[in-house]
Amino acid sequence: MDSQREATGPLVSETGAFVPSNDGTPCVLANRLDIGFPNDLVVSGISFELKQGEAVALIGTNGSGKSTLLKTIVGLLPPKGGRVSVFGMPPGHNARRIAYLGQFHASGFVLPLRAVDVVRMGRFPLRGLLGRMSHQDESIVMSAMHTMGIEGLAEYPLRSLSGGQQQRTYLAQVLAHQADLLVMDEPTAGLDAGGRELFLHAMNDELCRGASIIMATHDIQEEAALCQQVMLLARRVVAIGAPQEVLTPASLLETFGIVITGEKRVHVLECKHGHEGSEPFISGGRKM
Amino acid sequence: MDLFITPFSSNSFMLQALVAGALVSVSCAVAGTFIVLRGLAFIGDALAHGVLPGIAVAILVGFPGMIGAAIGAVFMIGGITLITQRSRLSSDTAIGLLFIGMLSLGVAIVSRSSSFSGDLTRILFGEILGISMTAILIQLVATVVIAATATVCSRPFMLLSFDPEQAQVAGFSVRLYHNIMLLMIAATVVVSFQTVGTLLVFGMLIAPAGAGALLARRIQIMMAWAILFGVLSTYIGLLISYHFDLAAGAAITLVTVVIFFVVFIIKNLRTGHAGQLEGVAHG
Fold this sequence. Notes:
- The structure holds two protein chains of two kinds.
- By secondary structure, chain A is of the alpha/beta class.
- Chain A has helices at residues 2-6, 66-73, 115-120, 124-127, 135-147, 163-177, 193-209, 243-246, 249-256, and strands spanning 28-37, 40-50, 55-60, 81-86, 98-101, 181-185, 212-217, 229-233, 237-241, 257-262, 265-270, 281-283.
- Chain A has a single domain, classed as P-loop containing nucleotide triphosphate hydrolases (Rossmann fold).
- Chain A has a six-stranded mixed sheet with strand order 5-6-7-3-8-9, sandwiched between helices. Chain A has a three-stranded antiparallel sheet with strand order 2-1-4, with helices on one face.
- Chain A is globular, with a radius of gyration of 19 Å.
- The model of chain A is unreliable at 1-17 and 270-288 (pLDDT under 50).
- Residues 275-283 of chain B have low confidence and may be disordered.
- By secondary structure, chain B is mostly helical.
- In chain B, helix 5 crosses helix 11.
- The radius of gyration of chain B is 20 Å and the shape is globular.
- At the A-B interface, helix 4 of A face helix 9, helix 10 and helix 12 of B.
């Protein structure tokens, strides 16, 4: 735990991997941004800045606006008001520099793809329609699979992999892009303890390389601790700031409903703000 | 040997049918692969039947049927696009209505023709045994264009099948490549209807590709299987039709469906065994 906390600051890249250009433009700059769908304003008045080499975690229940914000940043949803810029441009104009992992579940899909084909797609934004995949591309793909511990599954059909192995494959795809900005929606969903450990290390390496990260997460202990900023969402911005300032029982109570503190960990009982009501469930702590 | 080769070596109409059928198989395999992967079967079906009024009008006024089919297909794609964007109903309801509307319109128009049932049978089931050299040449050009389109667009098509949002964020416009894919399917239907008919072309689109999907673990391999199954079905179907005096188009399509189910059954018989092995390999 402590080593994770110490490693949050930006460090010099030791790997010699691709380092994003730093022209001083913030990766993401939102000013009184309103997000939502054509007939549904989800969150209004979001203001924040994501600098190069930093990470921000979005925390909130299902339907609180996390995915909506991420989709707005990658250009899948138009902003409903206010301003947002990504690398100084409106969203949707920087495909080469942005890697996106949605809440996408391909289980039961008939798609004939091997794990390595999925990871290779991470290089498509850089190679475009017809650009050749070089040896360097292939070695980046293999090293991304190695990072997520799935190099041995490269030739396996995606549909034969378990949910956790599929999630590792999607994460390897994100890593293979070597993007300047990683936008991820619940990246550790379905991962086992080993997978989460590999993910945290990989994210630390990405930050060291100079990439920026914005991700939705339910893990307020480890993943949020990796981030310089945490944004609590409950169909409005409850709080935004450094993890130790924001992750207080009071603001978590506002975000989630019920909070139980004990055994050095904070447990939150979630109530849903979104479409599907009722049934609270527990997250953020160890399984009970 | 006589049973298997002589029908083609001694009858030029059989050889031409084989060539035309093989070309149809290739374009249907390419278009069909993406129909199966993207779950567009219903749109493919609607397109195959939506071209009917266009063909009917063309026949009545004495134009080539293919031009009418192309106009019908463009109209159908426009309708489908409009419905999927605007409709609050689930789009398959609206597409289904559009498709049955076009089909009845087509039949109604053909019923004005003096040779009603002959024309209708020809449109629905094709006339593979009476295919002209010109039609074969057009089919050849179309097959090359369709294969080239799929090759150039292989990355966006793969991303689109995997996850449309991923394709959009990766810089490949979903709307653009979805429309290119629909046009590719429409072109396949338009050039293939003379050979296998608007009713049977749908079988050629999905049966070989479906069988390929069961066997392959890569999209390119799936397409290769689909081409193999399509060409094989054409050959076997023509032979059956020749020796047993059956309708050729129907015999070919029937073989594609039989092959699909044979592959399906063999695959299912082996799954229990293979599933255990895979469980051990990476459980």
